Amino acid sequence: MLNLNDPSLFRQAVPVGNRWIEADAETGTPIYNPSNGDLIGYVPNLGAAETEEAIAVAEDARHAWAAQTAKHRSGVLRRWFELLMENQDDLGAILTAEQGKPLTEAKGEIAYGAGFLEWFAEEARRAYGQTIPAPMSDRRIVVIKQPVGVVAAITPWNFPNAMITRKAGPALAAGCAMVLKPAPQTPFSAIALAILAERAGLPAGLFSLVTGDAAEIGGVMTASPTVRKMTFTGSTGVGSLLYGQCAPTVKKLGLELGGNAPFIVFDDADLDVAAEGALWSKFRNNGQTCVCANRIYVQAGVYDAFAEKFAEKVATLKVGDGFADGTVIGPLIDDKAVAKVERHISDAVDKGASVVTGGKRHDLGGKFFEPTILRDATVSMAFAREETFGPVAPLFKFETEAEVIAAANDTEYGLAAYFYTKDMARSWRVSEALDYGMVGVNAGVISAVEAPFGGVKMSGLGREGAKQGLDDYMEEKYICMAEV
Ligand code: ADP
């Protein structure tokens, strides 16, 4: 069982509208630890009725919240941020138990997630409008920003805390109310966040959680005319389904979808820095992030040297239970994820790739997999098209800059890309040529609350974090004032 300093942060119940709904073992959904299969607890199995209730209460509650001063909303968000940091150890432990990532990494996510609440507490007070010189002397043009209204959110399991705060922070800062469906694998991190929101002074009804059947809940959220914005982080398949479902009510949409990040090492790169960057870009969260390096392109002149340095580093990664000392790589989230990793490796080996290190399930069994490097990757292999979402690093060889830019852009995705070079002119040239929403130059991990996160092409719509993140939860209203 979870050993928490504050056991009340673990609750088998969700806030829906003005009440908490308790789970029981008979009707609730069991949640298991992916590391050892232990039962963690139950969450309520809710559906259309509770989603409708949460939306109706949110619509009621949002007006009073929006009528508060921005400073007041900022204060509540600031307190929420502080409570996350004060409870970082417990929140990290809940996250590790349900998601599997190592405790140090989980605590890092809590700090990163809390950072969005801090950032949007600050941005709440800077939702500036505009005055514009009018074309007629008896008129004035004023633009104000107002909250979009009720926001529905659906989040994934890979960042059970930060993917929620990155949406709830700006929504609440703007003066919206949110109804959230957390990922089915990781509801307890969402519940702990809701408990702390209540303690921070967030009025009831502004942050509801609905756990249960995804399609049913998502169906009600998207069909509701009351919901004015849908924000989703997850797969491109589900994202585009929701996009379609939102069309009849013409909702504002924020979509953070899949990626297939290229990671390019040019001949003139600092190979030590590049190998270290590749290590964390690829193996952070066991390869289960949408910005993880998925295709590593290395220029021919440094291919062997890079492969050797990278393999040395990968060999040091300790696989194990997230609570065990020294663990850097936890289990994968479920058996389906393990099967996909195996499929990508066997497909590549069948087509001529060779295993440098790893390549198979880990001796620990269960959902543990060896961190893997493959050489001689080619465009015909599955990972050239599909996101692996696991600990597999395929090394592609390239000759010229033009060739690698074309290869990097040859995907339906456009989330994050990385490249390593010491040449300043190339840094600009390649940054501009990559069809991606985010580019790391000599940096393999680039997420920051201050920076706009998001993709182009089938990786999504809109930006999260940064000042753009708040704008996505507000509408601009143009007011024309004429003299009478
Ligand atoms: P993953 O395969 O990484 O779990 P998904 O896109 O399937 O990615 O899941 C992301 C989120 O979308 C989860 O909260 C999941 O429950 C939700 N989801 C999955 N299918 C649907 C659906 N048909 N409608 C609404 N939400 C869905």
From TrEMBL:
Top-level class of the enzyme under EC nomenclature: oxidoreductase
GO cellular component term, pick one: cytosol
Annotated keywords: Oxidoreductase
GO biological process entries: gamma-aminobutyric acid catabolic process
Keyword Transferase carried by entry: no
Residue ranges of every copy of the Aldehyde dehydrogenase domain listed in the record: 20-478
CDD domains: ALDH_F5_SSADH_GabD
InterPro entries for this protein: Ald_DH/histidinol_DH (IPR016161), Ald_DH_C (IPR016163), Ald_DH_CS_CYS (IPR016160), Ald_DH_CS_GLU (IPR029510), Ald_DH_N (IPR016162), Aldehyde_DH_dom (IPR015590), Aldehyde_DH_Superfamily (IPR050740), Succ_semiAld_DH (IPR010102)
Pfam families to which the protein is assigned, alphabetical: Aldedh (PF00171)
GO molecular function: succinate-semialdehyde dehydrogenase (NAD+) activity; succinate-semialdehyde dehydrogenase (NADP+) activity
Superkingdom, taxonomy of origin: Bacteria
Active site location: 256
EC number, UniProt record: 1.2.1.79
PANTHER family assigned to the protein according to its UniProt record, in alphabetical order: SUCCINATE-SEMIALDEHYDE DEHYDROGENASE, MITOCHONDRIAL
Family: Belongs to the aldehyde dehydrogenase family.
Protein name: Succinate-semialdehyde dehydrogenase [NADP(+)] GabD
Phylogenetic classification of the source organism: Bacteria, Pseudomonadati, Pseudomonadota, Alphaproteobacteria, Rhodobacterales
